[in-house]
């Protein structure tokens, strides 16, 4: 790619960012947009929608940047919980790494790369077209001793990252523990979820749970709640909700009509419709009540139950031990927080869960593989000549320089990015069928899937330019992986620099601008009153974490190949730092709290990125005929993996379960607390399927209590 | 290989077997050999060494065969424990498989193979030299529909084996549970081993263990024993033992001299020597007593302790839970039986154990790889022409037909087998440095290592005829593994048939004959009195299990390639069946009891063998130009792996730890047992390092209590 194309792309995106920032600074002050830009403050009642006009409202002041900047970690912790803190630490961690890498890259590696004249020697003709390649390692002469600079840079960066990783893991583990120590008693700490309860014809599920835990945990067992299948009720409730929406819309319409007089008598059938819908709603209401009753067949008991214990330690021992002689029965696991439970899918039998897991894994793999087709098309777009062949009528337009630059520099990654937008929701949907019991588990599993999806479909597919078979042949020939990576990865440096600028900068500013919620709000505004209930969104970790991590992977792998990527990456991270902090203050409210369980994923992805960098380095040095450097690169991945193994042993257990020591200490604290009696009372009713909550509906009032939102 | 060479080999080995059987039947009745052939009965006092002569003693009656045959599983269980039962079930399991496979192989596949004329068409000249290949799949015509017979045979055998595997896993899991239920209270059920105890300058190790468990397990903690480093005492004791042996030998010598009169006054210095040794022994005795005292520096406390609990359930919860906030401290694991503890190596710190484990793994890998050199030499020996080139003086001998046949048919695998004899002890030694705390863990880990060693060094190295690099290139090119296996494996059919006959038959009859112990006894007999203490041996599982499993692997992989191997394998298994049962009755006493933990290893190896067979089948059908069969072979390994995954979930947990249900039931049974008070008293002193036991030595009596033997 030529420099001017990159500059065009950078120019467009910088412009877009500035426009987005300015628009955001104005739009967020308009009361009609409060639900889009500060839903959290609105829900908390901190801000009111007072339609008072003043000059400040139309000036693009950015005092929000200052507020986001000043937010301390403790404030963030109290605002959005430990998960948000860990998310922000992932960004600051990346900032630290790439500041260090950037200094080495720009002041040491870049001059060395420019100094070389490999490309001048060979590609005299193509020099103008490859001008960005002058800044990459491709320009260093083969066999040149200057390559040792790159060698040491790789060693130093790996060491630095490992040190930081260790420090972060330790810090977050300590945070997690102190968060646990400082927390009030929470229902999920005292609860386990038991599945695959063996059914017998003589006993009900509830009785067999009672007798099992009374027998084996006589001193610590408190009570239990059997889970019921509520899929039918849930679909009825959704139907009722839709009907209710229709009715309110019609009512509003009627009111407007009454104000405007009798101009539109044509719509007189509205009242009839309202009555009709009202009747239907009444029927559904009766139906729901019928199903909610204890003896209904539609809500028969599932073979799963929440079991409550007197102490955290008792609950922990219960899920650590295998309960029954048959390991596929009485499978216990820690219960999620009540608000975190994913009620719709309680496939309770061992075999069914196992099979659905397998099916989902196969589906995910197929999806990951088939997704390559649009990627290949996108790759085709970067090739102008191919475009001209496909669409001959475009030839005249493609000769205009500006159009050419947009197409080569901007369009490909924009299309790629748009199609990638669909991936996190699809992965989330697939994962939700895998039998997880909590939203947090689903998101964390989907997060991993999206990471691998991105590595495969964006990184590897771009690097090996596309076809599924060529990719597969690389994977199936492990001996030559470093070599082939070394040939292919540097060639795509300019593409990924553009990718950071377009996908990275745009995604993070559009995150600030919240384009889709804004559009949604603009469309629905005519039909909704300002007093309508609205949901405070939560940050979809499985969408944003993989994105940040993937930019980290690009930065690490291209650090010594094409250090020019680093300033753009740093700009992205700085934007992300300010914008996500702002969003945590104004927009997102936590939907659940895992206590920082996200970090191991971050750690593993970083280790993977390092190993990938080592592989490429191995291949590059062999290709550049500096074989001692190639051989001396071998210990580095081994050492990195050993370091990872050490961290897995030292820190990972803390993120999986709490230790006897912590649990018992925390239990002792509570022992003398007079509020515990109250807590136990609440504990027993904490886990209640929202579909089974009383369904308050009176067709005469506008007020409909919506259990699905709670 | 030509048929006559195989027949020679079979003839020699059958002869050897008959001779061994006859010799054994006579020799075992000689009282002087009782210590070799019936040490177990001798130690139990069932048989006495009465040197009474009768005719029966020199007639080769084989009534021992009948006794071994009649032994029921329950008798075996009470004699040698569950581990012996599982070992025997491994053999009967293989017998069942290969009877089924043999029927299909001999009556269906063999005729199909002979029917073909692929080899006749191409190798007219070499036909005589390849006559064994007529019975293999190589003889079936390419693209012939008869290959579908092989295809279905593979499917049927896989199904049969999976069914049997499921049945056996279930059976043994139930056996394990019923064994647990029927067992008396055992110390190791109430005990955990804690390592990496954090040391502090103010507290001793013992105090910190006491305070930790008093704090977190106040109601169930009983007591603890801190482990002390006794390497020095151990070496002193060995020295003392050797000195004592020398003294007794000298004394015996003196006594004989006194009887014979003064012929050999030359040996008068014996008395002086005895005094000298006696003095040394006295010094050592003092030294040992000094070290054994509580405050000795030589036996400082290690950062590890056995901790005793009131109930099995309490002990189990303690090792299931992570104890401390720092996962690398207070690491708990189930304690082994007191007799099973491997005292010499208590590397107690987390890092040291981890590093020693890594070092041992690297050493094992290197050993496995370097071992190929003798294998290559052995492979060279099968090639007569190479021999003639290397040793020209042999040319005249090599022209004799009988010698040729011995060399090609017998010698190669004999040499291979002899060098393989050294592997299990070496693996056992290496594994013992890995930080395991019990003999059973060491043997089971060594067992796995020996299995992989055998698969790599005997199977793969033979198949790909030898060189390390060619092997590595196969592994690093996974796409072509089935193809290369399909070319190489059938070519070695005759070698492995001979291998079964020589290595298999010989090893199992020499197991009966106990050549090495017999030779040892013959050599040391002049120096030992019949009243000497002798050790009852235990079956070294890591030597015998891999051998049986490897023959299973050969049988499964060659089943459809060269069914001729099956009758020889069946003969081997029948021999093994009778002989090992006899050895369990007469020779081996169990050194420890793991409750059948061996079975998962057997199961995994069988699954591996199946997958290997599928790989080869995949390649063969592709090679034979029957591609639909090759594609339809693909689901089979996937299904097999799914079956394995199911078994892992359904049965494996039972072999790892007991469930709450079993533990609490068992604990309840004991609650009302009046003998429990007595048991708790014994429990506290059950774990005692033999090196710290009182060292009774008086230089005036001949009696030396030897703590190393207990």
Automatic annotation (TrEMBL), chains A, B:
It is found in: Membrane. The lineage of its organism: Eukaryota, Viridiplantae, Streptophyta, Embryophyta, Tracheophyta. This is CSC1-like protein. Residues 5-168 form the CSC1/OSCA1-like N-terminal transmembrane domain. Belongs to the CSC1 (TC 1.A.17) family. PANTHER family: ERD (EARLY-RESPONSIVE TO DEHYDRATION STRESS) FAMILY PROTEIN, PROBABLE MEMBRANE PROTEIN DUF221-RELATED. It is a multi-pass membrane protein. It comes from Arachis hypogaea. Signal peptide: none annotated. Residues 189-344 form the CSC1/OSCA1-like cytosolic domain. InterPro entries: Csc1-like, CSC1/OSCA1-like_7TM, CSC1/OSCA1-like_cyt, CSC1/OSCA1-like_N. The chain crosses the membrane at residues 6-27, 93-112, 146-166, 358-377, 389-411, 418-438, 450-476, 485-505, 548-580, 601-623. Its main location: membrane. Residues 357-621 form the CSC1/OSCA1-like 7TM region domain. GO terms for cellular component: plasma membrane. Coiled coil: none annotated. One of its GO terms (molecular function) is calcium-activated cation channel activity. Keywords: Calcium, Ion channel, Ion transport, Membrane, Transmembrane, Transmembrane helix, Transport.
């Amino acid at each position: 790619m030529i420099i001017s194309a990159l500059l065009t792309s950078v120019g467009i995106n910088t412009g877009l960012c500035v426009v987005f920032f300015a628009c955001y600074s104005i739009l967020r002050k308009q009361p009609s947009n409060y639900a889009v830009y500060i839903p959290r403050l609105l829900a908390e009642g901190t801000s009111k929608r007072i339609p008072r006009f003043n000059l400040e409202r139309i000036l693009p002041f950015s005092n929000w940047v200052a507020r986001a900047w000043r937010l301390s970690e403790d404030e963030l912790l109290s605002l959005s919980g430990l998960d948000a803190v860990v998310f922000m630490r992932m960004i600051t961690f990346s900032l630290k790494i790439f500041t260090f890498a950037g200094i080495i890259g720009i002041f040491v590696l870049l001059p060395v790369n420019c100094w070389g004249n490999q490309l001048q020697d060979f590609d005299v003709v193509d020099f103008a077209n490859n001008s960005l390649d002058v800044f990459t390692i491709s320009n260093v002469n083969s066999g040149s001793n200057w390559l040792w600079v790159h060698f040491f840079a790789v060693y130093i960066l790996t060491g630095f990252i490992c040190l930081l990783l260790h420090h972060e893991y330790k810090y977050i583990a300590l945070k997690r523990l102190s968060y646990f120590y400082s927390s009030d008693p929470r229902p999920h700490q005292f609860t386990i979820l038991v599945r695959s309860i063996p059914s017998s014809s003589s006993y009900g599920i509830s009785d067999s749970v009672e007798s099992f835990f009374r027998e084996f945990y006589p001193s610590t067992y408190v009570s239990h709640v059997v889970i019921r299948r509520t899929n039918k009720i849930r679909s009825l409730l959704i139907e009722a909700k839709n009907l209710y929406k229709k009715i309110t819309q019609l009512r509003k319409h009627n009111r407007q009509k009454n104000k405007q007089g009798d101009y539109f008598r044509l719509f007189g059938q509205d009242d009839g419709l309202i009555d009709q819908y009202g009747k239907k709603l009444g029927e559904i209401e009766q139906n729901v009540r019928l199903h909610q009753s204890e003896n209904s067949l539609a809500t028969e008991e599932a073979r799963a139950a929440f079991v409550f214990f007197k102490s955290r330690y008792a609950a922990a021992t219960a899920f650590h031990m295998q309960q029954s002689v048959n390991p596929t029965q009485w499978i216990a696991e820690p219960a999620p927080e009540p608000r975190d439970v994913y009620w719709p899918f309680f496939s309770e039998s061992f075999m069914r869960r196992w099979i659905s897991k397998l099916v989902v894994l196969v589906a995910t793999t197929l999806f990951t593989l088939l997704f390559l087709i649009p990627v290949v098309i996108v790759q085709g777009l970067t090739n102008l000549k191919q475009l001209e062949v496909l669409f001959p009528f475009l030839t005249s337009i493609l000769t205009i320089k500006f159009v050419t630059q947009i197409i080569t520099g901007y369009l490909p990654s924009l299309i790629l990015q748009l199609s990638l937008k669909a991936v996190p929701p699809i992965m989330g949907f697939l994962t939700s069928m895998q039998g997880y019991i909590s939203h947090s588990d689903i998101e964390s599993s989907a997060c991993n899937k999206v990471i691998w999806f991105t590595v495969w479909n964006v990184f590897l597919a771009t690097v090996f330019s596309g076809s599924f078979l060529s990719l597969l042949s690389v994977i199936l020939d492990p001996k030559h992986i470093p070599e082939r990576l070394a040939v292919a990865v540097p060639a795509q440096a300019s593409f990924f620099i553009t990718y950071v600028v377009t996908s990275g900068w745009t995604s993070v500013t559009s995150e600030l601008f919240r384009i889709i919620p804004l559009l949604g709000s603009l469309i629905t505004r005519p039909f909704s009153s300002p007093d309508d209930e609205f949901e405070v969104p939560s940050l979809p970790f499985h969408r944003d974490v993989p994105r940040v991590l993937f930019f980290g992977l690009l930065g690490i792998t291209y650090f010594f190949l094409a250090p020019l990527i680093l300033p753009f990456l740093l700009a992205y991270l700085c934007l992300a730092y300010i914008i996500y902090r702002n969003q945590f203050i104004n927009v997102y409210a936590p939907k659940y709290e895992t206590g920082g369980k996200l970090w191991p994923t971050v750690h593993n992805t970083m280790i993977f990125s390092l190993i990938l960098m080592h592989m490429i380095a191995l291949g590059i040095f062999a290709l550049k005929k500096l074989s001692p450097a190639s051989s001396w690169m071998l210990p580095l991945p081994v050492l990195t993996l050993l370091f990872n193994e050490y961290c897995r042993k030292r820190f990972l257990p803390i993120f999986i379960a709490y230790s006897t020591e912590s649990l018992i200490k925390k239990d002792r604290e509570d022992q003398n607390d007079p509020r515990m009696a109250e807590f136990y009372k609440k504990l027993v009713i904490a886990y209640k399927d929202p579909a089974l909550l009383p369904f308050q509906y009176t067709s005469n009032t506008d007020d409909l209590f919506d259990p699905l939102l709670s």
